[in-house]
Amino acid sequence: MELKRACVRSLLVIAAVFVIPLGIWGWSLAAPALSYTAAGSAALSLGRSGLSVSPSPASTGTGLLMYAPVSEGCRDIEAAPTEIQVIRREPVGIEAAKPSEEVLALEPYPEDQNQHSGRIEKTHYGPYDNPQFFDLEGGGQVRNGTYYTNSQLLQQSRMPPDFSMDYSEGEPLVLIYHTHATESYEPSDRDFYDSSFKSKTTDPTKSVIEVGNRICAELEKAGIPYIHDTLVHDLPSYNDAYDSSRKTVKELLEKYPSIRIVLDIHRDGIQKEDGTRIAPVAEIEGREAAQIMIISGCDNGSMGMPDHLKNFHFACALQSELETLFPTLTRPILFDYRHYNQDLTTGSLLIEVGSHGNCLDQAFYSGELIGKGLASLIMDNKE
């Protein structure tokens, strides 16, 4: 009996000294593999099969999904793998010619504009109850200044844009440009203006060029390829501005035949007889935006625009998209006998963003909204 007890004690000592430590050591080696196996099981149970489980942080390619390892010691639902998405994308904007430093220095934006030369009055335009105006079924209005009847144009407004909105990487779909690139705005939201400032500048951060930048930023976010022409076409000659911009647009269309939407971004000038300047505004999502007006030209038979109604189809689609997303942002489309180089494509429009009574912030916000609306329209019509 004593011998048996001695053997048992010896076995217990051997287990304590050798077996148990070896078991603990072996478990420590297997624990990471078991942990990642458990993470993989959790991924499968959450419907994430086919995605890799990585035991350590690793770089991922464009759009690759990976799971972070489970936190050590966690046992509840918070320990489930965390989905991380890393997206890397090259810019979709195509470089265009830039104005020279000499041109940009011609008309600096004045720092001191404190002389009280006249009043600025905020106004909201529309909707109108007038025989010259009619409602679009999708939202917004049209001001008809042509020989077409309202009923004829209403029928035309139901037509979809006459071009494909599909696009491929590196092939721009949209061209933004500025025939009157020096058109500018008030420095801040205020009720007076300083007449020493002519509401023009070659500083691109304070003009309609920046409105164009805000439009393009939204196209960039949506991955829609575009070109932004920032050349100053209204210097040295304001009267030759449309000839200058036409030359540039034609060159870009020849170089990039994928362009189908061409928007000339301007700033209006609305003023009363007593010198009061009007700032058309709309409140959009708690912020003041400069109201915009789309101009779609009509051919009276002598303007060389046989496809003017195709531009009108696009104008109505864009107007309704903007009014659906941002009610009250738009003034009625002006459909009148205007040319504005709108013979160059079937998606050519001019957009007036605010007036010289609006401030920079209001105009730039409107640029952002136009960009969002345009991107939404394109994505909705992309095949």
SSE-based structural type: alpha/beta
| CATH class label of the largest domain | Alpha Beta
The CATH superfamily of the largest domain is identified as: Zn-dependent exopeptidases
Principal-axes geometry comes out as globular
Our Rg estimate from Cα atoms comes to 32 Å
Low-confidence stretches: 27-88
Helix content: 25-40%
Main sheet, how many strands, which sense, barrel?
9 strands, mixed
Average predicted local confidence, pLDDT = 84
Tally the structural domains.
Answer: 2
- Specify the CATH architecture of the largest domain: 3-Layer(aba) Sandwich
Beta-strand percent range: 15-25%
Spatial order of the strands forming the largest sheet: 3-9-7-10-15-13-14-6-5
Q: What is the subunit arrangement here?
A: single chain
Distance between the termini: 91 Å
Number of helices: 7
CATH topology title of the largest domain: Aminopeptidase
Describe, in plain words, how this protein is organized in 3D:
- This protein has 383 residues and is α/β, with parallel strands linked by helices.
- The protein folds into two domains: 28-88, no CATH class; 93-381, 3-Layer(aba) Sandwich (Aminopeptidase).
- It contains seven helices and 15 strands.
- The chain has helices spanning 2-45, 101-104, 150-157, 208-222, 241-255, 308-325, 360-381, and strands at residues 65-67, 83-85, 93-94, 118-123, 133-135, 141-144, 174-177, 192-193, 226-228, 261-266, 277-284, 287-290, 292-297, 333-336, 348-353.
- The strands form three sheets. It has a nine-stranded mixed β-sheet with strand order 3-9-7-10-15-13-14-6-5. The chain has a four-stranded mixed β-sheet with strand order 8-4-11-12.
- Helix 6 (308-325) crosses helix 7 (360-381).
- The longest helix has 44 residues, at 2-45.
- The radius of gyration is 32 Å and the shape is globular.
- Residues 27-88 have low confidence and may be disordered.
